[in-house]
Design goal:
The complex is a heterodimer. Chain A is of the alpha+beta class. In chain A, 59% of the residues lie in helices and 7% in strands. Chain A has 24 helices and 13 strands. Chain A has helices at residues 2-5, 27-40, 60-82, 99-146, 149-163, 171-179, 201-211, 248-260, 272-330, 351-364, 390-402, 413-428, 431-446, 448-453, 458-465, 467-484, 536-569, 573-604, 610-619, 634-653, 655-667, 700-724, 727-752, 756-794; strands at 18-26, 44-45, 190-197, 217-222, 227-229, 234-236, 238-245, 264-265, 332-333, 339-347, 372-376, 500-501, 516-517. In chain A, strands 1, 2, 9, 10 and 11 form a 5-stranded antiparallel beta sheet that branches. In chain A, strands 4-7-3-8 form a 4-stranded antiparallel beta sheet, with helices on both faces. A two-stranded antiparallel ribbon of chain A has the order 5-6. In chain A, helix 12 (413-428) packs parallel to helix 23 and helix 21 (655-667) runs antiparallel to helix 22 (700-724). Chain A is extended. Chain B is an all-alpha fold. Chain B has 2 helices and no strands. In chain B, helix 1 packs antiparallel against helix 2. The longest helix of chain B has 30 residues, at 29-58. Chain B is elongated and about 60 Å long. The mean pLDDT of chain B is 90. The chains are: A alpha+beta, B mainly alpha.
């Protein structure tokens, strides 16, 4: 026993020792000190300005500026994404930029981008209009040629006379003059041409008909290409229309209706030559505009590319600055207003490193005053910090999912690393499936570096995080599969000959009486003769149920022993004498005895009925055992064990509250003035349930009820938890049966036929069923049940799990959530 | 092979594994203790599994009765 006292502390067993520190930082070195601390990542700041709203804090302006900058950066990221570019970081590293400079640069870039965007918007709109005009010219031309030539002939003559001398003038003036209203109110038929969305054409026509009382002629033709509708930014189909009408009033009405329906009207000259001239002008202008637009796009893309070089660097910088200012907001100004005071938790092993960083910050700021860093006492319990690596991280997380360990209590993760994959494997045992899981785990581990830098979706991320868990689960599954002798439910004779053979050469009674055991037991695992026999299930069920009970009793004993180590570590001898000892006695005199009986029955081959033995141990302990006698002295032993169990119950229920009350009155005798006691007094006999701030209160009834609940939970839980371990039997039976069904009823059935197609189909169905049902669903199921066994049956023997996790201020832990 | 012989084999394998762990990843006394605990736990678990199945087959109460297959 002496040896166990001298062992060094185990790595993951208890959380790191923490200390509460106070920092006094002069204002000029505050920013640099906090950013160095952020790089180190080992100090958890306490928020001293808890009561203040975000707008009452000191550095609220800087936080606002950082938020504004991150908004601009998000805008750039959006624009880059919309333009379809991929931001690639610049290989050449530029010198670091100061925050103010960065702010100015970002403002400039944003301004530039917004300007470019609006310009290209305008250009695009003009381009659209030209396109529409072109379409109207092309289609409307057909209508005008076919309809009402003669009626308009006079007008064209007139217009020709007016405009003939200008026909070779520059195109702009021709276009402009065409926009003017046509020759003065001649009473002839006139027309309006334009373009409208295809979906609105019918209603448009009807409205026009009603408005002009039927005195109009409506011609339409669909446009050849789709056009971008500026309002919705999508490609829509448009229809070119021409409305023939007469009279000025009709014209105003039609124009108003066009406007309300969003139809764009473009004047089309009736003369063919003029039309073709205008078409040529429109085409040349639109190609000019196209070139301009493209140049504008290229310019914008180059600007976005240059921004893209620095985008990730800038985003990181802004994120860090915001975090630093958030932490600075947690600090308080002291009375002189020249220093900031901060408080926090840090692990003891990190103290020197923190002091080094603070000294470096003072030096780099060329500040005259050093930063003061000293240890303080704290009332509250420290946070829990476990230093994990890639391997142990997954296990610590699944333990933390149930509850974070109290400061410095025993960490169940140490044993969970082995027992969790082992119990999974007991329920999953099949070395064929285990090999599949092993391949999956190896793939994840080999591509570790590549996958850890990628961004994975949540399912793959969970799978990747648990890759070492998966590796151990698969290794233990292979081992248990070899023991159960199942390879996709097929047994093999790997470890020698079976122990059973036929009674005689003809094997005549193998089907009625069965085989006979002629050698020693099969050396490793379940004998392959059992598979497929009629008595397979009775044998395996008995084996697996007893195995579950044995594993359960061992794991629960481990839990109670861990509670002993906890009590010894915290110096709580009360817990050892009045909780650990009666618990061990109770559990082992009942279920430990059952385990002993199981082993004796196996070793001696007795035919005793263990249910009978256990039940009558309680009902009639003094009766003669007759057939159920397994060893000499069994009745006496049973009576002794029963008495011990009966004594253990009041032993764990009554003494502790009374002794606590006596200790409390002894300590506070004569202390009627209130509490002056320091924390030293409570180091020796600290009751684990009495950590309340008002130490003069001792509510006896509360403590007694608490102890009673604890005792009843243990006593009843002893039975229910032991029975709960039978799920190891249940799930392994289910796995084995499913596996057998898929093998015999799918694969063998399909293989029986001679047809290659049926064989392939059978193989495919077998592969799918194995992969989805056995590998995925059964894995999840066994994972869940093994987890439950750990969380409830193992941990409720010793684990408190009411601590809080250590969350240091660290740049490495900043995530994208802030954006 | 016998119960005791195989138990001895398990113990020897456990000792060899802990020696290998001590040689390959020697990272200070507290980490070594953790590795030793893990190896002992694994050895005990695996031995228990084997021992239970072996003991159950040493003196069985029933024998395999073959199924009348087609």
């Amino acid at each position: 026993m002496e040896y166990t006292y001298n062992l060094p502390p185990m790595d993951l067993m208890r959380s790191e020792k923490m200390t509460f520190v106070q920092l006094i930082i002069p204002v000029e070195s505050a920013h640099r000190a906090v950013s160095y601390l952020g790089q180190l990542g080992l100090l958890q700041f306490r928020d001293l300005n808890d009561g203040k709203s975000p707008f009452q804090r000191t550095f609220v302006n800087q936080v606002k500026r950082c938020a504004e900058m991150s908004r601009k950066l998000r805008f750039f990221k959006d624009q880059i994404h919309k333009a379809g570019l991929v931001p690639s970081p610049n290989p050449a590293s530029e010198p670091d930029v100061e925050l103010e400079e960065l702010e100015i640069q970002l403002a400039e870039h944003e301004h530039e981008l917004i300007e470019m965007n609006s310009n290209s918007e305008k250009l695009r709109q003009t381009y659209n209009e030209l396109l529409e005009f072109k379409m109207v010219l092309q289609k409307a031309g057909d209508f005008l040629v076919s309809s009402g030539n003669h009626a308009v002939a006079q007008e064209t003559e007139l217009s020709e006379n007016v405009y003939s001398n200008d026909s070779y003038a520059d195109s702009a003036s021709l276009l402009e003059e065409e926009m003017q209203p046509g020759p003065s109110n001649q009473s002839g038929v006139r027309f309006i041409s334009g373009i409208i969305c295809k979906s609105k054409v019918l209603r448009f026509e009807r409205t026009l008909f009603r408005a002009t009382r039927g005195n109009m002629l409506f011609n339409q033709a669909p446009a050849d290409d789709q056009i971008i509708d500026p309002a919705s930014n999508e490609m829509v189909e448009k229809t070119v229309f021409v409305v023939f009408f007469s009279g000025e009033q009709a014209r105003t009405k039609i124009l108003k209706i066009c406007e309300s329906f969003g139809a764009n009207c473009y004047p089309v000259p009736e003369d063919l030559t003029k039309r073709s001239q205008i078409i040529r002008e429109v085409l040349s202008r639109s190609s000019d505009l196209e070139a301009t637009l493209e140049a504008g796009l290229r310019h914008r893309d180059t600007a976005l590319n240059t921004i893209g070089f620095y985008l990730s660097k800038w985003t990181n910088m802004v994120r860090r600055e915001k975090a630093v200012y958030d932490v600075l907001n947690m600090l308080n100004f002291d009375v002189t207003k020249k220093c900031l005071v901060g408080e926090g938790w840090c692990p003891i092993f990190a103290k020197t490193r923190i002091q080094e960083s603070l000294q470096r910050a003072t030096f780099d700021c060329s500040s005259q005053v050093g930063i003061i860093f000293h240890v303080m006492d704290a009332v509250e319990s420290p946070p829990t910090y476990f230093r994990t690596n890639h391997f142990t991280n997954a296990y610590q997380e699944i333990v933390d999912a149930y509850g974070v360990a109290k400061y410095q209590e025993a960490n169940p993760a140490v044993y969970t690393i082995i027992t969790f994959p082992f119990l999974f494997a007991v329920m999953f045992g099949d070395w064929g499936h285990g090999i599949c899981l092993l391949l999956g785990a190896l793939v994840l581990i080999v591509r570790e570096k590549k996958l850890s830098s990628q961004k994975l979706d949540s399912f793959m991320e969970m799978l990747f995080g648990g890759r070492y868990l998966l590796l151990l689960m698969s290794l233990f599954s292979i081992y248990c599969g070899l023991i159960y002798n199942e390879f996709f439910s097929v047994p093999f004779h790997i470890f020698g000959h079976s122990a059973y053979k036929c009674r005689d050469a003809t094997c005549s009674d193998a089907y009625s009486v069965g085989l006979v055991k002629y050698r020693d037991a099969y050396p490793f695992g379940v004998d392959p003769s059992w598979r497929g026999s009629r008595s397979e299930l009775p044998f395996l069920n008995s084996l697996k149920m007893k195995m579950s009970i044995l594993f359960g009793v061992v794991q629960m004993n481990l839990g109670i022993i861990l509670s002993y180590f906890n009590a010894r570590y915290f110096g709580n001898s009360l817990d050892i004498k009045y909780q650990f000892v009666p618990q061990m006695i109770f559990l082992n005199s009942l279920f430990g005895y059952l385990s002993l009986l199981i082993i004796i029955k196996w070793c001696t081959g007795s035919q005793a009925d263990l249910y009978h033995v256990m039940i009558y141990m309680f009902l009639s302990p003094f009766e003669d055992l007759r057939d159920n006698k397994l060893f000499w002295g069994q009745s006496v032993l049973q009576v002794i064990l029963l008495l011990s169990a009966v004594i253990a119950v009041p032993w764990m229920l009554f003494p502790k509250p009374f002794i606590l009350k006596r200790l409390h009155t002894e300590r506070f005798q004569g202390r009627t003035y209130g509490i002056l006691g320091t924390s030293d007094m409570y180091n020796e006999e600290e009751p684990d349930s009495a950590r309340h701030p008002h130490l003069d209160e001792f509510n006896f009834s509360e403590v007694f009820v608490h102890q009673m609940i604890h005792a009843i939970e243990f006593v009843l839980g002893a039975v229910s938890n032991t029975a709960s371990y039978l799920r190891l039997w249940a799930l392994s039976l289910a796995h084995s049966e499913l596996s057998t069904v898929f093998y015999e009823k799918v694969l063998l059935l399909a293989w029986g036929y001679d047809n290659i197609v049926i064989r392939l189909i059978g193989l495919a169905v077998f592969a799918f069923a194995t992969a989805f049902i056995l590998l995925m669903m059964e894995s999840l199921s066994a994972f869940l049940h093994a987890l439950r066994l750990h969380w409830v049956e193992f941990q409720n023997k010793f684990y408190n799990g009411d601590g809080y996790k250590f969350k240091p201020f660290s740049f490495a832990l900043l995530t994208d959530d802030d954006d | 092979m016998g119960f005791l012989v195989t138990t001895l084999i398990f113990i020897v394998v456990g000792i060899i594994a802990s020696l290998c762990a001590r040689i390959c990843c020697n990272r200070g006394p507290s980490a070594n203790l953790l590795h030793l605990t893990l190896i002992i736990t694994a050895t005990v678990c695996c031995w228990m599994m084997w021992a239970i199945v072996y003991l159950a087959q040493m003196k069985p109460l029933i024998v395999p009765i073959l199924n009348e297959t087609e």
